Queue: 2 jobs
Job 1
Amino acid sequence: MTTAATTAVLDRAGLSALVAALAADGRTVVGPTVRDGAIVLAELDSAEQLPYGWGVELDAGRYRLRRREDGAAFAHSAGPQSWKNFLHPQREKLWSADRSPDGGLTVRAETATPPSYAFLGVRPCDLRAIAIQDRVLAGGRFKDDGYEARRTGAFLIAVECTEPGATCFCVSMGSGPGADAGFDLALTEVVDGDGHRFHVRVGSEDGARLLAGVPHRAADTATRNSARDAVADAADHMGRAMPPISLRTLMGESLEAERWDDVASRCLTCGNCTMVCPTCFCTTTEEVTDLTGDHTERWQHWDSCFDLDFSLLHGGPVRSSARGRYRQWLTHKLGTWHDQFGSSGCVGCGRCIVWCPAGIDITEEAAALHEEAQR
């Protein structure tokens, strides 16, 4: 029986062999790569497509690639995508229906077999996000069958953070920078005078079997200590932090705060924050019919509580103001998510800060609400 305490070391060739072994096992390997001026998640044919030598500069409403001199593959913060894009895709066909000439109707559920995924480079905050979506989409009374099919058997290779971005605040949400559970393998990248290598921890039997089939060596004390110290140093250098209070209580007591007017004056209600958030899960459905009227399809696609139509009922929307829609998003994410799913809906990845065109900072808003409550 293997445990997460089982450790090893891979060099760059070993990492390449790991990706090749996953592909040979019939898995669709997804990991970070450079494309269109960003580090994005995409299918990988080999480990050489990883963003070796690339880092990022982040701030509120700002994202830039930058070259690194150390050749590190994973020394970058979360990009515009999360693993939600693959497990809970933006668009998914649910069923189709055809009308025959005699007036009969044939309905067919979409039953395509999903890929067998292997995710390489899952940050600890995103590991937590996957666990949250597991509870939301596969753990309740109303399961999403498509999500459950894609999630079942997915192989997760975590990469611990050693260089947090300016917008990261996972420490204050208890979700990083170290990986504690939910992975098959966990890597910590080490680049120092002894070379470029990856400290590996095994978290499952599947992870142990995969590791056994690729070139590796036993973990030495120097590599183990370097990996541990790098993660500890990252925890001490977070770019942002939530106020050290009960955010759930704060949200419940701030429904009439004046701060909502301030943020509403800046918010474009574009929904970017919900699109990049790794835990936001809201969807809607639409029927698409061809010109003949004999064929129709039902599609599920992402929706956002910032969309005016999201709460549209007969007579108009429930939340017609930017204030109401932003307040709904933040109080649900940090407050009432606890009531529904037993945890916060925020993992501290900072994506909503980076990809907000107005540069609205969720940690700044929480701090401002706390300050107003104290006054």
Note: The chain has two domains: 7-235, 247-374.
Job 2
Amino acid sequence: MASAKRQSRKLGWRFVVLLAAVVFVVLALIRNVWVDVYYIPSESMEPLLLTGDRVLVSRTEFAHRPVERGDVVVFDGRGSFLPLASAAGPLADGVVATGQWLGLVPRDHIYVKRVLGVAGDTVQCCSADGLLKINGVPVTEEYLYPNDVASDVTFEVTVPQGRLWLMGDHRSVSLDSRSLLGAPGGGLIATSRVIGAPVATVWPLGRLHALERDPGTLP
């Protein structure tokens, strides 16, 4: 009788271990294929994303459409934004994947920025009115942090095929494509490095809301 009880307990523990393993694999699959949660540690995307926000990122957002101007994207900065991390410290201006132990891929050097230029675009700053110009057209960026200028750095960049030009919404504190002008790659990231798009803020609870795609007045 005692032997049967011991056998029953052993089977019970095996079931618990097996269940935990299955849950681990399912969560890892979900987070690496469909959605993931990231922590925002910087002010570079204010007022859209605040320091301390946890955002839900869809990995399938661009499965059936190309990345467009105005899209906010989460991307892997290795090979392009890496000099920013080297110069300003690990994960400088980046985002952090929460619960990294659930991931199947490294989560270092992940950033979130807004796409201002896609392949073929010429992005320039600034117009006589201090506005960003895309393909010669001045644009009003309603998403900018209050009282921020379009850029305090003068530049003109033509985006090659397969690349993106990205900038933060809080321009005065954002490390972005402008920060790597003159560096290898010129601050342009490969479209293949895009992980997905933030679709909702899920924490803190007072900030719980969907993030609607709003390119503003971009042409």
Note: The chain has two domains: 1-33, 36-210.
